[in-house]
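Supplementary Text 2. Reproducibility record for the structural model of the 998-residue chain.

All settings were left at their defaults, and a single model was retained for analysis rather than an ensemble. We include the record here because the model underlies the residue-level annotations in Supplementary Table 4.
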Amino acid sequence: MAERIMVRAKGTDARADGLLRTLKTLFPRTKLRSVALADAYTIDAALSSAELAWIARSLTNPVIEESSTRTLAPKAFSYCIEIGFLPGVTDNVGNTARETIEDVLGRKMKAEEGVYSSRLLFLSGALSEDAVGRMARELHNPLIERATVISAADVKRRGIPIVVPKVKLHAAGRADEVNLEVDDAKLMQIGKEGVANADGSRRGPLALSLKALKIIRDHFRRKGRNPTDIELESLAQTWSEHCKHTIFADPLDDVQEGIYRRYIKGATQKIRKQKGKKDFCISVFTDNSGGIAFDDKYLVTHKVETHNSPSALDPFGGAITGIVGVNRDALGFGLGAKPIANVYGFCVGDPAGKDTFFRDKALTQPLLPARRILEGVIKGINAGGNQSGIPTPLGFVAVDPRYRGKPLVFAGTVGFLPRKNKNKKLWEKKARAGDYIVMVGGRVGLDGIHGATFSSESLSSGSPATAVQIGDPITQKKLSDAIIREARDKELYTSITDNGAGGLSCSVAEMAKECGLPGQGGCIVELDKVPVKYPGLAPWQIWISESQERMTLAVPKQKWPQFKKLFESRGVEATHIGMFTKKPTCVVRFAGKVVMDMNMSFLHDGRPIESQKSTPVQRAYPEPAPKARSENVAKSLLELLSRPNIASTAFIAEQYDYEVQGTSVTKPLQGRGRVNADAGVLQPLPDSKRGIVLSQGYCPWYSDIDTYTMAAAAVDTAVRNAIAAGASRDYLAILDNFCWSTSNTPERLYELKRSAEALHDVAVAYGTPLISGKDSMFNDFRGFTATGEPIHIAAPPTLLVSALGVIPDVGRAVTLDLKNAGDFLYLIGETNDELGASEYFTMLSERPNNDGHRKSIIGAHVPMVNVRRSAKAYDAISKAIAKGLIASAFPVGRGGLGVVLAKTAIAGQLGIKANLSKLKGNAKQPDGILFSESQGRMILSVRPEHRRAFESLMRGVACTCIGEVTSKPVLAVVVGGKNIRVPVSALTKAYRKTFKNW
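Retained model, structure tokens:
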């Protein structure tokens, strides 16, 4: 019999107060007066009253909370809303409560017993059931949660029903044969909708083309049989765009080796050859992360992933899974790097937007509002990072209506590990024939099924809810500590990788290639040994599930007892599920029967190679007429500061712990005015001054004009931001994350090729090798408007470039805030009339004309990158920082020079007196000078005593002294004959107002 324990705060509950504010903001006309909150734990187990009371005490903080096995409702309320997870969804609170209960009882709960968490909201006020229903819809995600509305009268009469969200499956526990001897139409249906179940329903997308399915059919014809469902599903995962990156790998036009090998890998090869003995790259493009030398004893790694498709369905689950997943990429580098920092990036629709879209024509599957998506991904990264004990020193938010259909959610992790343990190189790994295949961490469930194939397609009504996962950072923290602190240095395993896309089907098969000769290893897997969350899973589901917190390791047979004992003592489940072999086949058994028997060469290399063709794209837009441009530049500056792409996102940084582990040197919010930083500096070793610099660069808006220029600007921005913090081009590596849409069309392929060319050209010119990357190629939404009209929302071509540098002395790190009145201000770089696709022109586009309509203003002149000029400037700045000549450095980015002058004043809460009449470059109009987004520029402040030495270093560089820092907090600028005076208080208010109530 199920029992429920309810826990509530004795006094003021900040969570309840927050919910009240949220609901009043969302429903301004509501008559809601108050909200009370209680946490509920439903225990599906036979317990005595004494045991139940004991458990209740253990789940309650007696100082601030009270608990009861009865309904803890306030004396007066109108309605109750209970929100809990649907069956099978990861319930981290419930799992933690289960562990607590097991400790209390002194025994393990049975497999069929469970603990489930939920929240009870008690609302008071003159409310209708319909109004409360609308509130409930705002407070839960129906893909993963249930919400029940109960009136006060029903609670009084019948109580609050106890719901046990137990999974009940009735799978046959066997592998089914899939008949591929069908016509092309039915083959295409299998590829798009998946294998048919007995009732005619489909299992979800395989993302296999007709050509691929015919190759699979021919392969199994030669074997004299059809494939089993697990074999077909395994091929779909392994061959997916998400795993094989087919668009980057396959020939495109005259690039026969593919754009990855020519432009990305090729750039790194050229740079490493040029650097010669100064090459700092250790492991690039071959492991879960990229790794460079930190010093002669340690390596530093970096990897950035995207989790876009799951975040569109469940933002919290998508983001937390993204961040804990990329944490495992650090753990999976070599024999295990310790995660020491997380970074993030959110590209979303306008959080203030009110538009409504649906995934299905019947208008029953609504897209979550942009506001809820942003809220959810923020909470997901927060939970994943904070609960894992990993600092989050850097991130960004970008807003554009084209991210409304599918957001881009970037999650990255920096790792750190010794080069050697005794004489063994820790950045090298290799599974050996005879090693046990061991799965450690979480259990397997239905969550995460078809994640890889789902991410290889557009978001639509067929997107499976099972692709959504919710990570468990507590389980992963225990797993991580057991690996990094103990098992690695005891040499208890020979190889390790994470269970990411494709689950066991990809991790085991990838590791099996390491055995014996290159590509000649194999494996035998006993699938029914895999621990599952609940009974009834079919073999194919166990094999491809992407349930979180799991790693696969190769453990020598003689070390298995010690390995298992260690992990069990740390509360981490470790299971021997098979063995690596010399025979190049992947054999999977279930209940004593072989359900998969496939040659490794076909599994990994049998996919069809597609010859891709592109069509050139050239776009030309007129420059807006002078009358369309703003005359009141001071007003425009204040408006720009409050736009979401420029405004303060301190509300995110303040939620994230960036001090845990004690490595933070510069902070994500800098100066007295707490302005968002463009870079972060870490000191990973307390006894060494050497530091790590992290930065990011992105300019997706420039894709409207030219993707080559967009990609070049993204690289330049990442490099410029790192240089401003104290890095040097001599020791700087970069990562690429391409996020494209409708990527198989000739036009988009051309834009992709051009952007890859730019990445290559600028990286080679700057000498910044690419060490890792990831792409996401189908960031499209195909659905319906609120009136039932079909709509296609495609994300703009987006390239995120992340920079990773090592500096010799963190004491020389520079922040962006003005420091002292009397310091001189310098602008580095040329200011040209380059307002194409700028934030300023975008802002003007959103202003209605006299007739009430809006006219799109894009502009003709997109900001260009002059790598020769910028490289010289960046090197001079690096030398000046190393000599301690620069007090502050602020890269000029989105919004232009005017925005950076305002932000650096806000950060220091000091004034600026500047004259912009003698800037280098061709910008002449006041708004062009202030809001052009010309690349390669930086605002520096220099102490008077350092002026001569600084200017000596800047010889041959476009460097202009534009004014000085003042104690009077006013931004006073002369530009184009105009005198602008804006109090720093007004600038600060504008900068902070957009997300003030978040």
